[in-house]
User: Fold these one by one.
Assistant:
Number 1:
Amino acid sequence: MTELYLSYVQKKAEADRLAAEAEKLLSQIINSISDSDLLTASETARRLKVSVSTISRMMDDGQLEYTRVRTRRMVLKSSLPTKMSKI
């Protein structure tokens, strides 16, 4: 029983270490992207002159590239279409 508990503690410590490392890397990636390079769905909708639901649908359908920042979907300005075609 003691060996089993020790194995669990070691694996838990390793998992915690890996999770902390992943969190640090994610933070570095997010910080490397300037806030001015990202747009919310609302900002994107205003720029493209469409509704927010259209933007959400475009994201869901893969027509618009986005990245997740915590729980929000953010659009890179560089991925915006220059013109909106009929959807």
Number 2:
Amino acid sequence: MSSAAWRPPVTLLVFVVVAGAAGCGAESRSSQKTSVPRVGTKYVSKRYRYEIVLRGTFGMVSALAPWDGSFPFGSSGRVDVIVDRHDRKFIVAAKPVSSGMSLSRWEAFVVRVKRQACHGLRHFRASSLGGVPAREFVNSCPGYDVITLAALHGRRGYLLEYLSPPSFGAAAERRVYEAGRRAFAFTQK
């Protein structure tokens, strides 16, 4: 068969791939009107009132019921789980707190919850989440190295966790976590 006979199918294949890619990109773009292209995919939680933009291929499983403050197991149906194909996860949950709740008391609550199944809680430090003060620490849970963040916003106590299998390098995982933390925004006050 001559090379000329192959041109129409190859041309058609190129057209299908380009058209498909254009269609996929339109679905994942935000509705923001800006000239700066977005990098990553936006995941939105109506239950916990936040959005986060992540690079890479993640999928989100939204919480089916409100978080009750128990250990934030991803399989509980009470936390949002955003996971990639390498089993790296962002877990987000929130629960109502009293108007007098302080960040230090909320952090102490989160630490108590985490100690139920995790160990090696260390490196406590100040941080931020969505523009509000937060407290961060690292810990080890069965099968994962975890960065945990506790924050207060809009009379809710928030928990954001980044879990990665121990086989990943700590520095690389810190970069993924930091990118997600910086791309986190509250959607209601």
Number 3:
Amino acid sequence: MVSGSGFLKKQKDTVHLHISANDGVPIYLQIVNQLKYLVAAGRLAPGEELPPIRVLAERLLINPNTVARAYRELEQAGVVTKRRTAGTYVSDAASPLARRERLKILTERIDALLAEAGQLNVGIEEVLQLVRQRADAMQPRPEEK
């Protein structure tokens, strides 16, 4: 069973990646999705270097070919660029796609939620009610004086 987490060292903080063999999503896609999310959310900035393939593979306890595949997918999507013998960097072109990418990520998560709700025989109105309840619960409460 493969399960691991790794981190991307940044100048100011550390960004974590988590993978799980139990997720039902191929490991390379978990890496792709998480890195896309981090770029879209601005946690990885344009021009920022990603760890070398072997380093990230060691941190995540996975095969380097899996990381290489994820990096290739990210490069094809325009999220990262490879510089020969100089590493893999977040693309400068990734930032204009940030909002569209965030919406795509949310759409995929909503699709998964709706599929699971259907399997559990929970209707859309009930799901929406739960979403509203959770949103309300997550709102910061005004300080009591």
Number 4:
Amino acid sequence: MTTGTSLIRRLAACAARAIAAPMRNWPLALAAAALLLAAPAYAIVGGGAPTTEGVGRSVVTIVGSRGNFCTGALIAPRVVLTAAHCVQPGADYKIVDYGADRQPKLQDVRSVSIHPAFNMQAMTDHRATADVALLQLAAPAAGKAAATLGMPNIPIMAGSRFTIAGIGVTVRGDGKSGGAIRVAGLVATGRPGTLQIRLVDPVGQGTREGMGACTGDSGGPVFEDKPGGPVIIGVISWSTGPNGSAGCGGITGVTPLTIYRDWILQTARPWGAGL
């Protein structure tokens, strides 16, 4: 889900040039970010509701110098939670920040920490792995609010309800359909556990096209309602089409934070984040 389509590639490519090149190239990256903002306000396939409020206030856009495009969630003023496969070594990353005037700017990422147990092949094969990472921002993201970090209710039961959020595409292969925050309510299926949760549209149950994560939604937050309000209990790792086919709108694979929350707290603490 991290490979961008035409418009997304243009944004990421411009960001990459801006990261590696002199200051004169920053306007090019900002122009590409503005183009993404001007695209239709869709993300998450199947009709997820658009929102910049509630859980959407924590969602940020991540672009990388290798051309990838992902979602992250602010969990402290300068700390972003995302998927490990979104921020692999050998590339540089930026946050696309939209201020109160809705004008985009690229925000520096000071450091990236990937969970040491992450295995890329396992994630690619839709098997459980530590697909979590943290980004330390150089400055707080403007107009954003950190979400509360938590863990899913245990035991996780089939039919349990969760909310996903992301800035990916709503039509697979159509970059113009991505770029704005959307949310969708999904339910757990199969035998969910502490290492992986598989979510489906409650109507189609993964057997026909419905709501679900798609390109660009990787790393997006997964929320569960608690007595005090929604908390992040996992991140989006992968997706399939109906009946496990290639694509989107079938299953959304989630890495729950059940056994990774302590690593997140320990990693963020030296960055001054009191989670």
